[in-house]
């Protein structure tokens, strides 16, 4: 049974666009959440470089998921 949306002209493109939007929103939520968590954790531990860690985390997740997770792992290893 075919999906009705795929039978209309441009249906496939709409599905691809919706998937892209959902993935982008999830990625943005992960970026913001991880950045906020690293900043608040560094700030609560009295780290003077909390803003720098937040910027590095945001840049890491902006580049991609693996670099972003890498920055968080590095932060977890060097935090005091």
Give a structural overview.
This protein has one domain. Helices cover 82% and strands 0% of the residues. The chain contains four helices and no strands. The chain has helices at 4-7, 11-44, 50-63, 65-78. Helix 2 packs parallel to helix 4 and helix 3 (50-63) packs antiparallel against helix 4. The termini are far apart.
Task: Give me the secondary-structure topology.
Elements: H1 4-7, H2 11-44, H3 50-63, H4 65-78
Helix pairs in contact: 2-3, 2-4, 3-4
Features:
rod-shaped, mainly alpha, 4 helices, single chain, 80 residues
What is the count of helical runs?
4
Helix content: over 70%
What would you call the shape?
Answer: rod-shaped
Total count of domains: 1
**N-to-C CA distance:** 58 Å
What about the largest sheet? Answer: none
**DSSP E strands, number:** 0
Radius of gyration: 18 Å
Which H/E pattern describes the elements?
HHHH
**Low-confidence parts lasting 5 or more residues at pLDDT below 50?**
none
> Into which percentage range does the β-strand content fall?
under 5%
Structural class: mainly alpha
**What is the mean predicted local confidence, pLDDT?**
89
How would you concisely characterize the structure shown here?
The chain is an all-alpha fold and 80 residues long. 82% of the residues lie in helices and 0% in strands.
């Amino acid at each position: 049974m075919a999906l009705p949306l795929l039978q209309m002209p441009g249906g496939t493109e709409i599905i691809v666009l919706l998937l892209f939007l959902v993935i982008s929103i999830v990625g943005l939520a992960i970026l913001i959440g991880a950045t906020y968590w690293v900043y608040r954790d560094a700030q609560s531990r009295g780290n003077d470089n909390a803003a720098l860690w937040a910027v590095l985390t945001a840049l890491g997740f902006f580049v991609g998921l693996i670099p972003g997770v890498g920055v968080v792992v590095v932060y977890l290893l060097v935090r005091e």
